[in-house]
């Protein structure tokens, strides 16, 4: 089941501040290993480095947890531990053969979404909404644990999933389009919030300007980022897999996968936004330095514990 939702004509925040955001933290549903070429980019053909690349880099599988006055919001939901236990998790044939060589997972018994939320002091039932930067399996793995929540995705990402052979892109409809899931497919609408420039389209998630979704395609069609505005603390931009490290984005170093033309345009918009917001902290999904960056960007009197 899915629902199509649009933004009111004005995307301006209804409040001057992000006072409705009480805390932001990061949890991790394990770790993975990716090819160096995947993270840092390369001119080599993808199949070459997937099969013959020898240098692997460990990266976390982060989930961002935003405590809002109206309830708990997640940005992505991590990787399902079934990848470690289910021999039929990957598709059969050539697709599964390639995907097994693209990424290695290391997920412990306590590294499920439910358990990580408990360790952080929450219950999985506290989750009101989950926003998906895109629909790769390492971002959608917790869906079955939060079927009570509203699941938010861009219309473009949803349509891409419905296209031919999404499993070739590590998008598994069997784990996403579940009968009891409450999907909301959002469309970005024109915004007159000048603080978001150069972004001209946005979606105000909570209706108060504290969490604004922005289109940042390139990694996959319909990929999005989320701007989090907080009182007394720098704003945050959660960018999913637009890049694998904020420093890589700052020097315009594109990853080894994705649409380079769209990545270039999205990189430029994010960097222009940061120019307008010099204290903006960019937090990719798999950046090993993200937890530390969030800690540094959170004053002592703002409740957030990125180590949990």
TrEMBL record:
GO molecular function: hydrolase activity; metal ion binding
Protein keywords: Hydrolase, Metal-binding, Zinc
Chain intervals for the UniProt region annotation (Disordered): 1-22
CDD domains xrefs: AHL_lactonase_MBL-fold
Domain of life: Archaea
Residue ranges annotated for the Metallo-beta-lactamase domain, each copy included: 60-286
One Pfam family recorded for the sequence: Lactamase_B
Cofactor(s) listed in the protein's UniProt record: Zn(2+)
Protein family: Belongs to the metallo-beta-lactamase superfamily.
Protein name: Metallo-beta-lactamase domain-containing protein
Taxonomic path: Archaea, Methanobacteriati, Methanobacteriota, Stenosarchaea group, Methanomicrobia
């Amino acid at each position: 089941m899915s629902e199509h939702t649009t933004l009111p004509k004005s995307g301006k925040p209804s409040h001057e501040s992000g006072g409705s955001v009480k805390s932001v933290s990061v949890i991790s549903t394990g770790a993975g290993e990716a090819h160096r070429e995947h993270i840092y980019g390369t001119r080599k053909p993808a199949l070459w480095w997937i099969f013959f690349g020898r240098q692997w880099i460990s990266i976390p599988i982060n989930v961002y947890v935003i405590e809002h006055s109206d309830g708990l919001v997640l940005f992505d939901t991590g990787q399902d531990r079934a990848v470690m236990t289910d021999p039929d998790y990957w598709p059969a044939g050539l697709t599964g053969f390639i995907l097994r060589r693209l990424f290695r997972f290391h997920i412990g018994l306590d590294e499920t979404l439910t358990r990580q939320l408990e360790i952080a002091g929450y219950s999985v039932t506290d989750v009101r909404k989950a926003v998906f930067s895109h629909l790769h399996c390492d971002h959608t793995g917790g869906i079955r644990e939060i079927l009570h929540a509203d699941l938010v995705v861009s219309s473009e990402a949803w349509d891409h999933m419905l296209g031919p052979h999404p499993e070739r892109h590590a998008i598994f409809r069997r784990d996403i389009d579940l009968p009891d899931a409450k999907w909301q497919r959002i469309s970005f609408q024109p915004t007159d919030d000048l603080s978001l420039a150069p972004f001209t389209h946005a979606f105000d998630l909570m209706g108060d300007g504290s969490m604004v979704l922005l289109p940042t395609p390139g990694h996959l069609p319909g990929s999005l980022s989320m701007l989090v505005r907080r009182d007394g603390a720098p704003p945050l931009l959660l960018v999913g897999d637009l890049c694998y490290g904020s420093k890589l984005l700052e020097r315009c170093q594109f990853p080894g996968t994705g649409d380079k033309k769209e990545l270039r345009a999205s990189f430029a918009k994010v960097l222009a936004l940061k120019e307008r917001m010099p204290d903006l902290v960019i937090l990719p999904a798999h950046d090993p330095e993200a937890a530390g960056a969030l800690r540094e960007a959170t004053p002592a009197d703002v409740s957030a514990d990125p180590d949990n």
